[in-house]
Write a structure and sequence with these properties.
Ubiquitin-like (UB roll); alpha/beta; 5 domains
């Protein structure tokens, strides 16, 4: 008993011994199993064939969670997606994994342009398309994508002895449309000189004079320069029937001795086209009048842009004479590249028809004003001829109706609600001519 009591007392006076916890069972390493299927959800613009090379997961490959996470990171780093998630589970036969990636494509997308990189846009686009499955004519302006594409371009240019630091960024173009522009880092160099190659129909001097007036000294941007070619050089060819003239290649290099670029433009002049059939729609003119105003469009003649523009102007002028003050035209050109012809369809939008309202005459006395008013040839309510007021004043002057006639002016006041036009004619007398000074009398010279 004493031993038992002593043992009990000892247990009460001392802390109870702690039992040692059993060591936790070691977590087994994740088991790798063959990949049986790879699914991709959320694709809208991209295709499965574009995504799979970036994931770099092969059917039959032994893979575990870490491999799926690495593939997820590769897809995220590509910069083409705003979000990438994944899930995996045993395949239906229980012999491998079925893995599914869920993506959200980055957007919006913007057109890609290349400027002043010493190579054509087509060449640089082909380089990016080869190196990156996600490259397209329009791309999202994500930082990873722009950085990677800039690096690809830098590597390519360096391999062709055109080293340049490249920057890609989102910016407005000359028409205020957002584009992704890749160009050399730093300030844009100016155009110092323009050269043309491949031309024979038009002398280089004529081409250079046409472009130099608007391009020399401007910061060089390829898309802006191409717009200048379209407005300054292309019309020269279109007056010679060369409607398919094109500029397939533009290259730049530093100008020696001055700060700026030499821009070399390769021209494909094409062949000469003739004018084919011409159709005019929407004028409402009688056939006789329509034939008269379209006589400049002669089938089988060499296509001439200036002749076409003059013919369209004649149609518009005839419509304005019939009261259609806001007439508009749209010329649709259709190219027959086999027969080398250009067919035209001229669509006329007449707009509202205006009639003459009232005539006001300023600057004439009470006797002369009624006579001038009687000469006026348009009556109230008749279609208003927009050219008539100035024609009328010219006739008054040419026929010498008024003596000492000075400055004249016709002011038209259209009412866009009533579709009427009031006209005010202003007359001024010619200022009196200064009198010639009297000749000084000669004094006799005293002897």
């Amino acid at each position: 008993m004493l031993l038992v009591c002593g043992a009990a007392a000892a247990q009460e006076g001392r802390p109870k011994p702690q039992r040692k916890a059993k060591p936790a069972a070691a977590q087994p390493a994740q088991t790798a199993w063959p990949i049986e299927t790879v699914s991709i959800e959320g694709l809208k613009t991209y295709t499965r064939e574009q995504v799979l090379p970036v994931l770099a997961l092969r059917i039959g490959q032994l893979a575990a969670k870490a491999d799926f996470e690495a593939a997820q990171q590769r897809l995220t780093d590509a910069g083409a997606f705003d979000g990438v998630g994944f899930r995996y589970a045993p395949a239906p036969d229980g012999k491998g994994y079925a893995v599914t990636y869920e993506v959200t494509e980055a957007g919006p997308r913007f057109p890609v342009v290349f400027e002043d990189l010493g190579a054509s846009s087509a060449e640089l686009a082909a380089v990016l398309r080869k190196e990156d499955p996600f490259f397209a004519p329009a791309i999202p302006a994500t930082a990873p994508l722009l950085k990677r594409y800039s690096a690809i371009l830098e590597t390519y240019l360096a391999s062709h002895n055109k080293p340049a630091k490249v920057t890609g960024k989102l910016e407005p173009d000359d028409k205020s449309q957002l584009v992704v522009a890749f160009r050399p880092t730093g300030a844009l160099p100016a155009v110092a000189r323009v050269k043309f190659t491949g031309n024979s129909v038009v002398p280089s001097t004529a081409l250079e004079n046409a472009i130099n007036a608007v391009a020399i000294g401007l910061p060089y941007k390829e898309r802006r320069f191409r717009e200048l070619l379209a407005t300054q050089v292309k019309p020269i060819y279109e007056t010679r029937g060369r409607v398919r003239a094109a500029f397939p290649e533009i290259t730049t290099e530093p100008e020696k001795g001055v700060k700026g670029l030499v821009v070399t433009v390769k021209i494909d002049e094409g062949v000469s086209y003739s004018l084919g059939a011409t159709e005019v729609l929407g004028t409402g003119l009688p056939p006789r009048d329509l034939k008269k105003v379209t006589e400049d469009f002669k089938t089988a003649a060499v296509f001439n842009r200036e002749t076409v523009e003059a013919g369209v102007a004649k149609i518009e002028n005839r419509m304005r004479r019939s009261g259609f003050m806001h007439v508009k035209t749209n010329v649709d050109r259709r190219f027959d590249d086999t027969a080398h012809k250009v067919d035209l369809t001229i669509r006329v939008e007449p707009g509202p028809k205006y009639t003459f309202g009232k005539l006001d005459i300023q600057g004439l006395d009470l006797v002369t004003e009624p006579d001038i008013r009687k000469m006026w040839g348009i009556k109230s309510g008749e279609p208003f001829d927009a050219d008539y007021p100035n024609y009328f004043l010219a006739q008054v002057r040419d026929e010498g109706v008024l003596d000492n006639l000075g400055a004249t002016k016709a002011v038209q006041k259209p009412d866009d609600q009533l579709h009427t036009v009031d006209v005010t004619l202003y007359f001024k007398g010619e200022p009196p001519k200064p009198k010639e000074p009297d000749k000084p009398k000669q004094r006799g010279v005293p002897y």
